[in-house]
């Protein structure tokens, strides 16, 4: 895929590439699931445990969505019982720096409600 240069001085108000990326990442819990996978191959139960408040049904759907987007791959380990792991693809791993930078921004600028 060709590299597209970004010139901040000539930014147009709308970019279809940015909009498509935000559609992928903007789904509920999508970026949180991707962040949970930054450490490497992870089992479903470990992701579920790392993301409080997310139902198994929604996690399953989000993993399918992220796999369809080419950001996550599902790997079946031939063990007894069968072990399924999820990991970021190179495309998904390329988001790592973006997700961590967003996390840094959130730590500095986002205030959580008192009940969290």
Question: How would you describe this structure in keywords?
Answer:
Arc Repressor Mutant, subunit A, single chain, 47% helix, three-stranded antiparallel beta sheet, alpha+beta
Indicate the proportion of strand residues: 5-15%
The ordered H/E elements are: HHEHHEEHH
Strand count, sense and closure of the main sheet? 3 strands, antiparallel
Low-confidence stretches: none
Q: State the strand order across the main sheet.
A: 1-3-2
Q: What is the CATH C level class, in words?
A: Mainly Alpha
Task: Tell me the number of helical segments per DSSP (H or I, 4 or more residues long).
Answer: 6
What value does the Rg take, in angstroms? 16 Å
Give the fraction of residues assigned to helices: 40-55%
- How far from one another are the termini? 42 Å
Average pLDDT rating: 91
CATH topology: Arc Repressor Mutant, subunit A
Which structural class best describes the helix and strand composition? alpha+beta
What best-fitting shape do the alpha-carbon axes yield? globular
CATH superfamily: Winged helix-like DNA-binding domain superfamily/Winged helix DNA-binding domain
- Which architecture per CATH? Orthogonal Bundle
Protein name: DNA-binding transcriptional regulator, HxlR family
GO molecular function, one term: DNA binding
Organism: Amycolatopsis australiensis
Keywords: DNA-binding, Transcription, Transcription regulation
